[in-house]
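Box S2. Input/output pair 1.
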Amino acid sequence: MGSRHGALAPGTVKPAAETRPERRRKLLIAITLAEIGGAQTCVAQLLPGLSPDFDVVVAAHGPGPLRAAAAEAGARWIELRQVRRPIGPRDLLGFVELVRVIRRERPAIVHAHSSKAGVLARLAAALCRTPVIVFTAHGWAFKAEPGPRSWLYLWADRLAARISSAVVCVSETERREGLAAGTCRADRTLVIRNAVDTTGLPRRGHGERGRPLLVSVGRLKAPKDFDTLLEALGLLDAVDYSALIVGDGPERAELEATAGRLGLLERVVFAGERDDVGAILASADAFVLSSSSEGLPMSILEAMAAELPVVASSVGGVPELVHDGVNGLTVPPRDASALADALRRVLSDHELRRTFGAAGRARAEREFALDRFRSAHVDLYRALLDGSRLQSPARQALDRMGG
């Protein structure tokens, strides 16, 4: 006869249900917008490596390729309606919306990406007593934003750093600058550099052709600084080239007007947003990025994977990607003359382009592999969950990650 209260009789084998695999912990990834961008590309690349270990939910505002990437990776999508890019009164509604989402989903981990969601989601997760709160800084907003917005982000990130289990920086430069500014803490900060799928992108053949094609990719808004690029292109009168600017943004009309004023409209094409950037890079001869502030640009990684030489401003983590004189050339930011000199050198020398491109592709394959990028995140999440009762990551957990 069975024992009372459902207890097992002596000698009874435990039911199989007790040996079932452990349920996957829920991970909520919050990012401000789903549009095309470097942070969104990083999240999209990360998702396929998370699904085997975590129940993944992605929350973001608006349309964009990230939504399709989430569905393909088996992650659930939550549309954020109140979280937007500009700072304003709507941010309070965005904060309330994120609190409601986190209370409903009850994730074990909230991982915030991008500046706005990076602040709002961390504060909301803290209010909801989420065990693990992670933020990836894809370039610090206090460096990229002008005027009062810079000050607001500086103090918001300082506040959010106090309740973050870990802050991930995409480059060593970003980590140093965050520590100096107080937007992250030494015992809770580590570097996981961005990655690129070298197997999924076409490569440039570097065959000879009469007019080399120069490509730049980015949102047409600061801190990308396409004004300096156009000014530099205007100084290349003696160089035969064509240029393609891929991307859209609020400064497009102004930039097109500048190109017209500089007499560049026969050479420079504004292509808008494209979903075939990989093919465009493979058809080009060189890549340029003239930003005044960066984290670790995905566009440069993709150009390297496409075997293109890179000319870029020496800001943020760019020197960690472009070794000057090895796989490209770096120049000071906002220096149109220096940028023009570097472009002239690359566009005028086919053999230099081939050498730089091959070196960049080799670095991308060797140092920026996707599997390493994904496993570093999974290991970080597991380490933080193991120490989540401490309300902050154990130092040894970050040591295991190289922090």
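Box S3. Input/output pair 2.
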Amino acid sequence: MASAPPPRLSPLTLSMFQRYCERHLAFHLHAVRLSRSHRPNLTGVRERPLIVYLNHASWWDPLVCLHLAAQLLPERRHFAPIDAETLARHRIFGRLGFFGIDAGNPRGARRFLQIAARIFEQPGATLWIAPGGRLADPRERPLQLAPGLGHLACRLRQGVLVPLAIEYPFWTARAPEALLRFGESIAIEDAGMRARDWTAGLAAQLEATQEALAAEALAREPARFETLLGGGAPAAGGLQDLWRRFASRLRGRRFRPVPGAEP
């Protein structure tokens, strides 16, 4: 059977979508913030394979990761698996680096490994993956990862894996914060483990990263984070927004609420 081809990136489509993504996130989220507590040296990865694996906390995750990739690793090529049916309905995702996978069956697992191997033939390739396999609350324990990532780590001769924790708490604004934190990077060259050991170890690293992010989220201290998007002074909300809406109608104007405004 022929090896599955990787997606064909379109730099123009990706650039246009990134600009749209930034505006969309700024409108719907109060801020996108990255923890200052631990920042792996991603530039040190150079052209080696890089895998960023994360918990799946919201349908916002792909857009947030796309923005994070553009901010931190603009020189690399980025890819991510997506449900095959979704890709069939929206072919444009293929030009953004997404490739279709039928999750939950052996054929889908084999296709994932084949495409990932082809992707990492390209220098500077990065794979973003949520190996938990389903949308879940970021505090849900124990953390369970699908075995595909462990098998991929076994097959690669070199590369780096980095856990990324994401959650979307509400602080003082009407819109949620998108909080992110990287964990300790893991060099594949330094390992030599079996697939199931990889899976268990990667799950433990991601869970530890999620616990650290949860503590920072509960502290509600923006200074602990680097603001990648948004986070400006919130506009007046609540009764003041109600009055502004009413006054706009009296003047025959369209009311435009400010995203992220405090209640």
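Caption for Box S3: DSSP finds seven helices and nine strands in the chain. The longest strand covers residues 160-167.
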